[in-house]
Amino acid sequence: MEFAKVNVEVRSQVGKGGAHKVRAAGKVPGVLYGQKVAPVAVTFDEKSLLTSLDKEKRRNTVLSLQLAQGGPPGKTESITAMVRDAQIDPLSQRLIHVDFLRVDLEAEVNVSVPLVLTGKAVGTTNGGQLHQSMHVILVAAKPAAIPTKIEADVTALDMGDALHVSDLKLGAGVRALLDPKEAIASVVAPKAEKVEEAAAAPVEGAVPAEGAAPAAGAAPAAGGDKAAAAAPAAGAKKEGGGEKKGK
Question: pTM of the entire structure?
Answer without folding.
Answer: 0.68
